[in-house]
Structures are given as structure tokens and as C-alpha cells.
Amino acid sequence: MRQAGRYMPEYRALREKYSLIEICKTPELALEVTLQPLKFGFDAAILFADILLLLEPMGAPFDFVKGQGPVVHEPIRTRAQIEKLRVCDPEEGLAYVLEAVRLIRSELDGKTPLIGFSGAPFTIASYLIEGGKSANYRLTKQMMWSEPEAWQMLMRKVSEVVRRYLRAQVEAGAQAVQLFDSWIGSLSPADYEAHVQPFVREILQDVMTLGVPVLHFGTITSTLLEAQRDAGGTVIGVDWRIPLDQAWNRIGHDYAIQGNMDPLLLCAPPEVAVARAREVMRLAAGRPGHIFNLGHGIIPQTPPDTVKAVIEAVHAYTHEG
Hints:
The protein is an alpha/beta fold. 50% of the residues lie in helices and 13% in strands.
């Protein structure tokens, strides 16, 4: 999960001077924020960006509103609006992200790998249609079920932008990339397979030809693990709602797996967080291909000292093994 954020005093100090969008659009600031968490001992750096950045060059401007989160100014509700969306070239509309990737790689100097990422088609489409966050994705599902041609057009456009964006990040220097399908758990397996999986498969199968690890992540996906695996990715992300060993048995041990600690455990007493981290490692059973990670994003109230304690515990457990 994205490592930098509001739980870090250094990040909060920057946010007093700059907005989130300003940090994302200024490669030097994105570099600074990407590097901030490495002091804790993370094994990789994660590009500081936002999954919605590609909306603006597509012709769907948005902003972050205090207390609401991201808000799309003109939500996509009609076929005519979808037709107007642009399939943009990342080197044009997202050049600042690619420059940040190049700066970060240069600064890391080969010592720490860099992970890039993009939002996945369903998650991006849901923001476009709902106009922001949603409790039930009613408008998104209505379009998916009631206007299949419009839905297909929207998903094709978003998918092509995502595919190009991930490829461009790898070409700029990212050594692994992750596809974030944060809201995919709102779908049934049948709807995922019929309305989303073909688009995800096209993206992932293409990016996997670049020869870098490709992480495929979603939340509330206990019913979708096999379908996600079949869609593609060399690493399948698993949240905390299913034991790691059960998830891996279903996905297959010829795949790598990422997860799967509840991020709120980092707000528990440090000894509890450490014990639960060790339990995740125990369930991994020393098999190659496990990336220890949170099951979703770290929250602002997280004590930095607990983050450090968990990282040290994971490293210690690995060395014990």
C-alpha cells in the first residue's frame, strides 16, 4: 500500500504548504514524499501519486474537497459524455508522473526497487460515474446493467489509458507495477467475470510482457480470488478478510501473493500489531513469493513507531526462517 501519507509528520509539514495535487504534479515534491517512509526500513519505494490523476487528461477534471475526498466536477452519466473522453498519451497528460519516476530511480541509485501503480478500470469508472466515493456504487451498476454498450465504451477507454500509463511507468524506470482495483469487491463473481475481467486481463497480459512483477490488488475479494488470478498478474493481493494460507491455496502456489494484515492493527498496541504480523508470516510458511503488506491503505491516525516495529518484526521473522 502507499507508504507515505498523513501519519508522517514530514508529510503533514509539506501538506501545510502544498495541496495533494501540487505534490503529485511537482516531480521534486513527489520524489521527496516517496523517499520519506524509507527511513522505517521498507524493502521497496512506492511512487507517490494518486489513482485519479489520469482523469484530468481524459477530460474529466476533479479536485479533493475537504471532508469529501475526490470530487469529479462533471460525473459521467451519458453516452455522449463517454464519447468526449480522450484516450490520452501518458507522455503528454501525465508527463509529471513519469518525470517523478525517473527522478526517484536516479535518487535510489539501484539500492531500493521502485513500485509504480495505476487505478484499475472498474475503480476509475466508478469514480467517474458516481462523481466521487460511493457507499453502494448504485449509479455504476445501473450503467453496467442497463446500458451495456455505454459501459463497454467507458471501460475500453479507461482500460487503454491505464494500459499505456502502466507501460510508460515501466519504461520510465519503475521495476514493478500494481493495478489497484480498490472497489472491485462490490461486485458479484458473475458481474466481475462478465463486465470487468476481460478489460483487466487485456491490461495485465500486455504489461506482463515487459518482464517486471505485476501486482493485481483488490479489496473484499475473497469471492473473486480465482477470477482475479485468471485475469492476470504475477502477484495477487489479498486483504485481511481471509487467512493468507487459505487465499494462497485457492490462488495456487505457483503465484506470488501480497498481504494481508489489517491496516487498523497498526493502531493497536505495538505488541498486538507485531504478534499479528508474525501470524501472517507464519501462515506464509516460508514459501517463496510472499510480499508482506497491509490489506489496504495505511490510515492517518497510525503511530509511526508501530509501523517501524512491525517492519522490524517482519525482517526478524524472515531471518529466523
